[in-house]
Amino acid sequence: MSIKVPYEKVKETVEKALLQAGLSKEKAEICAEVHAQSSADGVESHGLNRVPRFVEYVLGGLVDPEGEPELIGGKGAVENYDGHLGIGITNALFCADRAMELAKVHGIGCVALKNTTHWMRGGTYAWRMAEAGFMGMSWINTESCMPLWGSDEPGVGNNPFCIAIPREDGPIVLDMAMSQYAYGKLGVYRLAGKKLPFPGGFDKEGNLTDDPGAIEESKRILPTGYWKGSSMAIALDLAAALMANGKSGLNLDEEGRGSCTGCCQIFIAYDPYLFGTREEIQEMLNKRVAAADASHPEKEGGKVTCPGERTIETRKQSMENGVNVDELIWNQIVAISEGNLETKDIASK
Questions:
Q1: 331: exposed, middle or buried (C-beta count within 10 Å: 0-12, 13-18, 19+)?
Q2: Is the pLDDT of residue 348 over 80?
Q3: CB within 8 A of 320, min separation 6: which ones?
Q4: Mind listing the domains of the chain with CATH numbers?
Q5: Do 62 and 3 contact (CB within 8 A), yes or no?
Q6: Could you give the residue numbers annotated as active site?
Q7: What is the rounded average pLDDT for all residues in the chain?
Q8: Do residues 319 and 7 lie in contact, with contact meaning Cβ atoms separated by under 8 Å?
């Protein structure tokens, strides 16, 4: 069952929960804002739904709240950092910001991060770069949670990829896993007692299904584009490990810690006006988006939009009417904020 909670109350409660878990005041505040903003934008799967699990990561030693990115090396517009298993959100924010600083000097900036932890909503960092006026790209490698095409067992991560276009009339932001639905989204539908809009994986008998619980049980999520999503997942895994000189998904599998512990992440910022004026670039973007949005809908009353456009409207509604929150998850976060750290992670059940 979903309830509406005012944004400021959401942020305040999450911050209290993270303080209970041992985070510093500064880091708890930053992470609370990212989690609250993710849910306000309609991405509750990696917003509030992840808070209890993140607390478990910290208490279980998978995340070091005091870990900070350390510069390992740099050449021109590229830098490499060791995340020291610090908080995924604060590590990733640091790297996204550093990529933009490099782009101010070189026109493009790339930061490769290794030995870090789950960054929660991947789109957070792409949105951050776009809203600062840069084109942004980022991706991550993870332990295996998705079968390669033609296999019936997990053999690759779903390795989310993000790209953001800095359109002044509203950024265009793609945030996608290499699976049709990320596990977090499966959990959202399961908790709501709903079927998926489209088949998202296979059950234990190998049947394509829209039942989120059956897919979670079989661990056979469907690669986006079938063999194409499977292939891109491998390519992103290898590229991240190569660029960061860090661990591949296989290394993460062999270590067996799970939850993206020790993963690699890449952040690229690009100056959109490196070879064109603001006026001509923005005019081109607006014309292209307008043409896409004007596409004839397949169903009467439908509307075609570019990625990110609906997010802005969802955010507006959340700020005005309250953030949509699963009641079970919310009660759990409240309990943690009050000192009950024994609460189990409902989102993963």
A1: middle
A2: no
A3: none
A4: 2-60+322-348 (1.10.1530.10), 70-270 (3.30.1370.60)
A5: no
A6: 46
A7: 96
A8: yes
